[in-house]
């Protein structure tokens, strides 16, 4: 069974059919690029797959589970993640907090009201490890908005998920509790990253 | 995210210590009116603190927080008439009703953003206002005078203005520490993150709605405690507590003190009410002067008054 299985996906804005009966299946370990001219509907497709945008019809199965109708955050927790074309960060947070927030999403409940989160070693250590891996550990305490790298698209990737085994840009290599793989899509993927086992 | 810097801890200590010794000063001066104003200030400081939690940290501009003042105040009036006079019972009832009201109205309001959120919270508060206006058993528009203040352990301790003042101060300090803890917790991080960039938070696996709604409920409950204190201070309850002017005043206090600065909210409430008292002595048209000062503060410091005491802005 494919890791990602898309059947009959549709979306129209009025009379304009942006996604017209799209079928797609992706096996584990595969890396794909979706290309097309401006307005072809690449971003819309990514938005539909990630749950950011609704779909008119079709099914999106990820790792055997139906994702259609699930909100974005639920799909993320199931293991589907996306990156953004335009850098998307939490500008008021420090670089470390940006990554630690992502670690926090995976570890334990966030309905904890009393213990200071800044003192959670487990979150910070994993986040620091991720920052060190991408070579920006020295910026950990800097506010993300002022970090010069915030201007570059590259900044995005450590904050997406703390990569553990490699630094593939578009997927999260962090093994999910259920042992699932994350897969994400992008308009492009650099050839240098194609070697990754986890993409 | 909030960092409890040594400076901020000191500022909090100094501010609360000043509140703590105030009754001794007023006693020395023989001015009994000042303690009444100060109690009102403390009650509004609680409400401003509650509002700042969602406005400053959650990015939710509620223009209907006076509703919770009204809920707290009417809890005292209604239970008091029913013969239940205990302060604890009044606060529990206020918190319970406020929680339900916040849960329902918040769940609806949070489906909107920006100006629509402001308008819908205002609309819900006005519904509460008109509900109590039409509640003729409790005086309708005119409100109702309390027979007595809340009791503690069956004793009418709060009839003493100083005792009421210290009760309000203890509640304010407790709620301030609670609010600080919340903003620094895991929950606070998600709440602040959802203000910074809700899409990003979803992309890393959080549903902002749940956290925002929880914060909204916590804030409503805190504000209802302020209502309990206000009713006791004035020994009088009327729908005017829920008036939209009042909601606006709370927003002004938060802006005054610096949005997203919990201690600033306390200071903002203090300064706004003191200014009101003082300017009213100068002229009948004091709101003009008050407005002018507010404009100047907002123009020259985006962080409100607390911004003037800060040099480390990046």
UniProtKB/TrEMBL annotation, chain B:
> Native species of this protein?
Paracoccus methylarcula
Name of the protein described by the UniProt record: Branched-chain amino acid ABC transporter permease
Question: What topology does the record note for this protein and the membrane?
Answer: Multi-pass membrane protein
CDD domains named among the record's database cross-references:
TM_PBP1_LivM_like
Subcellular location, record wording: Cell membrane
Keyword Flavoprotein among UniProt keywords: no
UniProt xrefs under InterPro entries: ABC_transp_permease (IPR001851), LivM-like (IPR043428)
The entry's cellular-component GO terms read: plasma membrane
TM annotation in the entry: 40-59, 66-84, 90-108, 115-138, 163-182, 209-230, 250-274, 286-302
Q: What is its main location?
A: membrane
Named from the GO MF annotations, one term is: branched-chain amino acid transmembrane transporter activity
Q: What is the lineage of its organism?
A: Bacteria, Pseudomonadati, Pseudomonadota, Alphaproteobacteria, Rhodobacterales
Q: Which Pfam families match?
A: BPD_transp_2
């Amino acid at each position: 069974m494919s890791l990602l299985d898309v059947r009959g996906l549709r979306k129209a804005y009025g009379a304009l059919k942006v996604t017209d009966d799209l079928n797609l299946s992706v096996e584990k370990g595969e890396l794909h690029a979706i290309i097309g001219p401006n307005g072809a509907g690449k971003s819309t497709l990514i938005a539909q797959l990630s749950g950011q945008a609704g779909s008119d019809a079709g099914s999106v199965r990820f790792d055997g589970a139906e994702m259609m109708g699930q909100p974005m955050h639920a799909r993320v927790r199931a293991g589907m993640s996306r990156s953004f074309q335009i850098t998307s960060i939490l500008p008021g947070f420090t670089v470390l907090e940006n990554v630690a927030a992502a670690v926090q999403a995976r570890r334990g409940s966030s309905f904890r009201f009393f213990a200071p989160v800044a003192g959670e070693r487990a979150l910070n250590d994993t986040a620091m490890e991720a920052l060190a891996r991408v070579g920006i550990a020295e910026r950990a305490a800097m506010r993300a908005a002022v970090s010069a790298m915030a201007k570059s698209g590259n900044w995005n990737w450590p904050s997406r998920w703390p990569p553990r085994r490699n630094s593939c840009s578009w997927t999260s290599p962090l093994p999910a509790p259920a042992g699932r793989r994350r897969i994400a899509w992008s308009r492009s993927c650099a050839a240098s990253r194609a070697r990754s086992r986890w993409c | 995210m909030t960092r409890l810097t040594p400076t901020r801890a000191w500022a909090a200590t100094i501010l609360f210590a000043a509140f703590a010794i105030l009754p001794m000063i007023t006693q020395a001066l023989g001015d009994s009116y000042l303690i009444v104003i100060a109690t009102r200030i403390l009650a509004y400081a609680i409400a401003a603190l509650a509002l700042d939690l969602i406005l400053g940290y959650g990015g939710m501009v509620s223009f209907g927080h006076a509703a919770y003042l009204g809920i707290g105040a009417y809890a005292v009036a209604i239970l008091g008439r029913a013969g239940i006079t205990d302060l604890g019972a009044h606060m529990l009832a206020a918190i319970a009703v406020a929680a339900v009201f916040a849960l329902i109205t918040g769940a609806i309001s949070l489906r909107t953003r920006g100006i629509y959120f402001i308008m819908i919270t205002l609309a819900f508060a006005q519904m509460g206002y008109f509900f109590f206006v039409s509640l003729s058993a409790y005086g309708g528009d005119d409100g109702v005078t309390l027979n007595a203040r809340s009791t503690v352990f069956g004793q009418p301790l709060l009839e003493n203005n100083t005792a009421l003042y210290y009760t309000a101060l203890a509640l304010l300090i407790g709620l301030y520490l609670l609010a600080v803890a919340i903003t620094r917790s895991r929950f606070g991080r998600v709440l602040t993150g959802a203000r910074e960039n809700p899409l990003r938070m979803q992309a890393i696996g959080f549903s902002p709605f749940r956290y925002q709604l929880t914060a909204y409920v916590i804030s409503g409950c805190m504000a209802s405690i302020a209502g309990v204190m206000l009713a006791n201070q004035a020994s009088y309850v009327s729908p005017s507590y829920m008036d939209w002017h009042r909601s606006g005043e709370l927003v002004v206090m938060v802006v005054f003190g610096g949005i997203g600065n919990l201690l600033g909210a306390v200071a903002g409430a203090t300064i706004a009410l003191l200014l009101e008292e003082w300017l009213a002595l100068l002229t009948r048209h004091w709101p003009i002067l008050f407005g002018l000062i507010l404009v100047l503060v907002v123009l020259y410091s985006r962080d409100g008054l607390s911004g003037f005491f800060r040099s480390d802005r990046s």
